[in-house]
Amino acid sequence: MGAARSALNGSSIHEFTVKLLLFFVQDGNGNDADLGIYKGKVLLVVNVASKCNYTQLTEVYNRCKGRDFEILAFPCNQFLGQEPWDDQKIKEFACTRFKADYPIFQKCCENRIKWNFTKFLVDKDGKVFDRYGTSTSSMSIEKDIEKALGSQHNE
Asked: Has 52 been annotated as catalytic?
């Protein structure tokens, strides 16, 4: 978990502002989103790509939403061009194919990850609880989500 903690360099995710693309199936139109609104929630932060086969977020979201849990999806085209679409097409795809009703942010460049669908579980204080590789399905980390929901994780 030590390497995972370095992903934010000791910062809290709540200190960042990003561009919102889609929030609960409403158009974000590129508005700034202050991640401080997620204080007190457990987050699964995922870099996503429409043409990547690791797309199992909706199921875990539906089981855990409403319990101080949120998924934050960040589209990225850096890895084998698997997110070639513009923001409008990404939004349409996420809403129709995956019935996404979690926040999706504008396409961005990723640092400190190796491939699409790298997942970071972030605790209620905005610190990285754990990091999961591409092939680790969202379903298999539900036990860690439950653990983070049930405890205030301290470093």
From this structure: yes
Considering the entire predicted model, what is its pTM?
0.76
Give the model confidence (pLDDT) of 122-136 as tens digits.
Answer: 999 999 999 998 888
Q: What is d(CA 62, CA 110) in angstroms, rounded to the nearest whole number?
A: 26
> Burial code of 78-103, b = ≥16 C-beta within 10 A, e = fewer?
bbeebbebebeebbebbeeebebbbb
Termini Cα distance of the chain: 10
Residues in the chain: 155
Out of 52, 64, 76, 108, the active site residue is: 52
Residues 50-101: pLDDT tens digits?
766 555 678 888 889 889 999 998 887 776 666 777 777 777 766 666 666 7
* Single-letter amino acid code for the residue at 61: Y
Domains of the chain: 2-150 (3.40.30.10)
Cα 14 from Cα 54, distance rounded (Å):
26
Say if residues 68 and 41 touch (Cβ distance below 8 Å): yes
The angle, 0 to 180 degrees and rounded to 10, between the axes of the packed helices 57-64 and 142-150 is: 30
Beta strands in 12-75 (DSSP E): 17-23, 26-27, 32-34, 42-48, 69-75
